[in-house]
Write a structure and sequence with these properties.
Number of helices: 1
Largest sheet: 4 strands, antiparallel
Order of helices and strands: HEEEEEEEEEEE
CATH superfamily of the largest domain: RNA polymerase II/Efflux pump adaptor protein, barrel-sandwich hybrid domain
Number of strands: 11
CATH topology of the largest domain: OB fold (Dihydrolipoamide Acetyltransferase, E2P)
CATH architecture of the largest domain: Beta Barrel
Distance between the termini: 39 Å
Strand content: 35-45%
Radius of gyration: 18 Å
Helix content: under 10%
Number of domains: 2
Shape: elongated
Length: 159
């Protein structure tokens, strides 16, 4: 099962009245639940605030599951491109509104602290700032697509 199939399952759970889906394959098991608090084995159950459309994904693998296909970066040996990663889970936006231009394009020079995109999480729009000055080499995520915590968003060739 690859990342796109898992994301499709999450979207299905979020948009339907189904509360849980479990899939077991030979070496892979996934369970996706909606509106369910998550507890670690060490913690005692504590009343957690209910967040509408919260989705919990649990996976286990008998053998190491093959990694989901991540964007391949064509790097030359001299390349020193740095990844700017998502600081949160949410929906990635390249522009502030549909009728506005993108914050950055491939080839643009950026400065540390410059807003480069927006990530929407729970109806809050969070401006994401560049962590480094440099030149945008590649945009790794399509506009309006869901992103995960620590997922690479941009490749930047630092100054």
């Amino acid at each position: 099962m690859d990342l796109k199939e898992i994301q499709t399952l999450i979207k299905f759970i979020s948009s339907s009245k189904v509360d849980e889906v479990a899939i077991e394959q030979k070496d892979f098991k996934i369970k996706i639940r909606r509106n369910s608090p998550v507890f670690s084995k060490k913690s005692a159950p504590v009343a957690a605030p209910v967040v509408p459309q919260q989705v919990v994904v649990e996976t286990t693998a008998a053998e190491p599951a093959p990694k989901a296909a991540s964007p391949k970066v064509e790097e030359t040996p001299a390349s020193t491109a740095i990844e700017i990663k998502s600081p949160m889970i949410g929906t990635f936006y390249r522009k502030s509104s549909p009728d506005k231009p993108s914050f950055v394009e491939v080839g643009d020079s950026i400065e540390k602290g410059q807003v480069i995109c927006i990530i929407e999480a729970m109806k809050l729009f969070n401006e994401i700032e560049a962590e480094v000055s440099g030149k945008i080499v590649k945009v790794l995520v399509d506009d309006t697509k869901p992103v995960e915590y620590d997922q690479p968003l941009f490749l930047v060739e630092p100054n």
